[in-house]
Amino acid sequence: MAASLQGQSYKVDSVTSSAKVMEIAGRPVTFGAKVTLEQLVADKFNLSDTGKLVQVNVNSIEMPEQLINIIGLQFLQRDYVVTLQVTSQGLSQIVVAKKRIYVSAMFLTVEQIPHNKKAYSKALEKALRLAVDKLK
Asked: Residue-wise over 26-57: b if at least 16 C-beta within 10 A, else e?
């Protein structure tokens, strides 16, 4: 850890969502995000009740997918794209992270598979990590 980062203190104030998607696999999209953010901040900086406030908003969640059919075989590629707005010390920055999954099936249809909460969680964690990297 760099010496210049050790003296800085932050407090995770809130993690909110203004995304149109409110739930993934029956859980709120912000489920576990504040705890994860606090862990990531603590790894790089000091956590303190009197530290600089950090606020994160999930601006959008996109799940584009591409389906390929080849003679009885189906291949589905789905991306989980999470866009966050991180605000600290009056500065707001946007971070975007993506996690890609693949599903394949023979003689079955993969079009209506449920959303993968683990893939979404990994995309959210990656976005939170990028957000912490933006803190100074």
From this structure: eeebbbebbebbbebbeebbeeeeebbebebb
